[in-house]
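Ticket closed. Logging final result for ABC transporter substrate-binding protein.
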Amino acid sequence: MRISPFRFVRRALLALVLLAFCLSVSACPSCSQQVDEGDAFVVILDASPKGLDPRFATSDSSAKIVGLLHAGLVSLDTANGDRELRLARTIEQTSPVRYEVELRDDIFFHDGTPVTSADVEYTYMELDSELVRSPFAGLTRRIETFEVLDARRFVITLKEPHAPFMSDMALGIVPRHQCAGFEECPGAPLGAGPFAFVSQQGDMRVELRAFDDYFEGRPAIDRLVFKVVRDDNARLLALLGNTADLVQNAVAPLMLPVVEDSDRLQTMSTPSFKYTYLAFNLEHEILKDQRVREAIAHAIDREAIIKHKFRGAARLSTGMLAPEHWAYEEDVKRFEFDPDRARQILDEAGYAPGADGVRFELDFKISASKFRRSMAELIAQQLGEVGIAVRVRSYEWGTFFHDVRSRNFAMTTLQWPSVLEPSLYRWIFHSDNIPSPDNRAAGANRGAYRNARIDALLEAGDKETDPDKRRAIYSEVQQILARELPYVSLWHEDNIAVLRQGTEGYYTTPNARFDALKQVIPAHKANIQPTPEVQP
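Final structure:
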């Protein structure tokens, strides 16, 4: 039998993966532990969740689980990224600052207690902004009054117009009867989402169960288990070995041929709103010079990286917003791959190459992900070709993110996984949101970008409720940021889900959340054939 060269390459690649896996587990015995989860639907994560309270959960892994445990008045975790009503039956904005809300009459917390106006009031009004580590921190401060009309109806009046407030209503509602009197809710997480909490084993495993009284109907997945597997090869082997049902955006694109060659698995790839970027510390002696940042932007061959590292599963980005976003501005300054122009800019900036060809050196901090490190090393190689010597330094996630939040870096790459509401620009680029070593939660302006015009635009964008005027505001924001380069925009990576063959009903969301699990039919249920009828 003749084997096609493509299939031969795939089998060789699988053999290499197996060899790498064996070598990795010999150094890390815990990596090889495979626990039989029975009939549970197992989702593999590449990073640990950091809390399951919707008010304080800021990591992407936490947000993915929180969205299934806790329901908000609305949700942005939808197939097209559009806002949908969830716990609210109706929301009527009767003025720029007044919101009249009516709750559904069939919504319950997982202990059977009805969700009422009092729970929403508690969640919104008792939100301690000193503890919150996300854009929700300002929610309580924005509300002038919260008027409870009855158990299902209330009116929120803001101190001033705040255009993103409808999106802020996606915050998961927590039960007043459990949480009142505590900074954080005690005991097991209690929400009104499609799945209820069962157990958590450290930061490596979370088990949920289907909630019988979920208002959209009981999920078909009875037991849902999230397991953290940090090793790239171990995640792939879990899929190939039938010990996992779903991995999303955690299998390196170069490994996808192995997946595609397996009759046990299926893949799904869709465009996303995820935004990957190169960030600079603008107080760095060299990187504060905009000409240097422009040279770096010209020196990076983003198309080659997408082709060779992502197998084409990403799109070039011009800024934080994807082309499908309602506020996307296409007409911005772009820095195409042009090494000669990069060298010219550096010469003009006074950074002539030395005898060894090196103009200056930079540290490039990244996480310990093997795939991200290989991508960073390729960027470093490209920068080296124009005379910028780059030292790639990778760290365990906790250490790495601590340094980034403390602004202890020169250059780094990260990803915003859920760019739906453009008010995120304010959290990232307003000068009020520059963190410090003493206050890492001040905001996400970790590069210390300062621009008075940007500050004014972002404040106006939050207050403007007219969609056309708001679009014009963010159009100018995108033009300024593309020109001044506090970030080099890299790409929007596709959402890539790998599922067990036979799984039905799954869809990806632009923000890469797991909303679809409430309707998924697991393979072991989808493949059950009805008993044939027989004549008595």
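The mean pLDDT is 88. No further action required.
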